Amino acid sequence: MNKNMVLKTLQEVAKEHGFEITLMEADELIKVFTETYVAIGEEIEVGDKANVGAVVVEKKQTKPRKGTSTLGDKEVDWEVPAKIIIDLKAKTSFKKEHEIEIS
Asked: Which CATH superfamily is domain 46-103 in?
């Protein structure tokens, strides 16, 4: 699904809820959602979570990693430092409510 299709879907869902929005307004709403997740992620402490609709915003600290990768016939050492990240995922109740069983 490309960006334009996502914006049209948002526009249609908004209309179902009584809001007439343009594609440009839909695009701005996506930006507002993104900035909201970032603002919440910046306000909460590492290890804390916040529920925002169907989304869980969590601040996590990653562990440092290092290793060696083989690229062709060369071995390359690499290292990733510890980081603090903002993680988004769907709420468990949302996942369960919208799961489709296949056989």
From this structure: IHF-like DNA-binding proteins (4.10.520.10)
